[in-house]
Amino acid sequence: MRGDGGGTGTGCLLWVRAALGAVAALAGVFGWAGRAAPATATAGPASAPFPVTMSPVSLPDPGVVVTPGQDVPDPYVIEANGVYVMFASQDGFFGPNVPVRVSSDLVDWTGPPIDALPTLPRWAEPGFTWSPDVLRVQGRYVLWFNAALAASGPTATKCIGVATSRSVVGPYHPVGSAPLVCQLDHLGSIDPRAFVDPSGQLWLLWKSDDNADLQAQTHSTIWVQRLSPDGLQLIGQPVALMTADLPWEGRIVESPDMVYAAGHYWLFFSGNWFNEPYYAMGVAECQSVIGPCDPTTLGPWFASNAQGAGPGEESLFFDGSRWWMFYAPFAVDYQSFTPRPAAVARLVFGPDGPSVVPPGTPAWSAPDPRPAGPGSGPARPRHRGCGPRCAAPVPAHVRS
Questions:
Q1: Contact by Cβ (8 Å): 251, 218
Q2: What burial class does residue 13 get, using C-beta atoms within 10 Å of its C-beta: 0-12 exposed, 13-18 middle, 19+ buried?
Q3: H-helix or E-strand spanning residue 347
Q4: Structural domain count of the chain
Q5: Closest Cα partner for 101 from 152, 37, 170, 183?
Q6: How many other CB atoms are there within 10 angstroms of residue 32's CB atom?
Q7: What is the pLDDT of residue 390?
Q8: What is the CATH number of the domain that holds 343?
Q9: Domain coverage including residue 310
Q10: C-alpha span between 327 and 333 (Å, rounded)
Q11: Which pLDDT tens digit goes with each residue over 352-385?
Q12: HSE of 200 in the Cβ direction (CA atoms, 13 Å)?
């Protein structure tokens, strides 16, 4: 999920320190809560043992801000034809629907961004195009995104759409006359994220927007459902993977991203309100794509730190030998409100879950120390294109 960025607040180191103290205090009193989901379909090998426990990330500077001073909420990266492409949520009501930036090294991102989805579907209202996710499927690129229903009026109910393009940077063309996912009985659906399981089956994860009513007490849920081989239709019924039920989550679990690494299914998610210092990231271990899933920490796994308050909206990227996690802190440089830049952390997976490698160390750029093979990395490299033989070239005006 995203919110409008921009603006600069007053420097306030004490504000961030207080937020860190609050998060740490809450973590000490949280109990363990299992989240079960009905097993209605087979979904690849199960993880064992289950579940694991992890220690929260304690590094004061766990990542590197790669778009300083820019509002880049919900950053998502894919590689195509040797170029890294970053998609993001709309950063204002009149900006590009889906801003796209490119890089040759995952750190330096060129600008200004172009719009990957210049024309919205007829069902969508401009100004709320968030959480883009892209994969190459059957020789073309598929974009999943959420937008507001044009007929929803002031409530601006969000639903999930799909679009396709022959080029990774677009333009993407909407598919269908109605949203792909639209849970009106849950106040909408947002934050789509695709996942390819070890058998090659395509799945879609998303968050139901139950917390959209600010006066209610409803809690949001993360769902998963099978996709057709072309990624354009849903198959079967959705399965609830987890509902916000831990105190630190504050009614909200969102921005799901599932990966299969080190022989386990890991579900990354964000919890709490995106514009608060209590916004943070959690990790759950799942027995399969359809659950059950259980948290691996008593509180948030990756929370406010000296680098930025309220980190979240994570997406994972595997470059062939290394795992990276892109995310967006709500505030940086000890200020109470700033543009939400994209940041990146280096992850290493083991049987006990992911750990964060300190930036600036030799391990930051080194390949994963575990040997390649089944279970040591993703079954299908997450977010990678299919290479120069089939990836559409990036237009020259985007590379320059």
A1: yes
A2: exposed
A3: strand 343-350
A4: 1
A5: 170
A6: 11
A7: 26
A8: 2.115.10.20
A9: 13-369+382-391
A10: 16
A11: 889 999 999 999 989 987 644 334 444 444 444 3
A12: 4
